[in-house]
Write the structure tokens for this entry.
Amino acid sequence: MTYPFVSAVIPAKDESMNLPTLLGEIQSALTDHCQYEIIVVDDGSSDNTYGVCEEWGQNHPDVALTIVRHQCSVGQSTALLTAIHQAKGEWIVTLDGDGQNDPADIPALLDAAAKQDNPHFCIAGYRTNRQDTEWKRFQSRFANAIRQAVLKDGVKDTGCGLKLIPRNSYLALPYFDHMHRFLPALIRRLHGQIDVVPVNHRGRWGGVSKYNALNRAWVGFIDMCGVVWLSRRSKNPQIENISQQATHE
């Protein structure tokens, strides 16, 4: 099967312990499947995230690697947008920088994307074997149930960072902080197709999570209300015909 050029993008903050291994896994997963590049956005890390990525790239000159560093942290959604503006691929694959997403699952997302006949789509990973604590799994189930009831985006696990979206579709989405949590619903707003692929999930290798129950719940509720408003207020015209007449000098 032939795929278009793929950009694997990773927003990362203080993930120096995880990124070298993750970059190597992406290389192993994609080298025999498609032409690809990797883009890491260091979102104002206080550790050596930028340096370890730069060193990895120097040791792997056959991999197209771009590293961008934000002067200060602006959040995951903005870091993703920075990466996508840098990307050259037709398809964007997003991964978290903590190593919990398994790059070995990317080919399954590519296969699902190749079957799409809608120009706008999102292939979303569904973590079938969560390696988080029972409390964190409960939070996730509760939040996903509310999101599904309100947004009806067809995705049971919107918190999974492993997704595939056409670059043009991503850039057509309205930007706001924390938008990465609502990508399937925003793709639906474009009358896009959503497909879910079961994926592996792993425990965090090192470092600490940047989220807790309070910041997830409150910010998520406010943003969900915004997404509902956007979805109800948006209009996507279906063009029936275009007539153009060229001018002659």
Summary: Residues 53 and 59 are 10 Å apart (CA to CA). DSSP finds eight helices and seven strands in the chain. The chain has a mean pLDDT of 84. Residues 213-233 form the longest helix (21 residues).
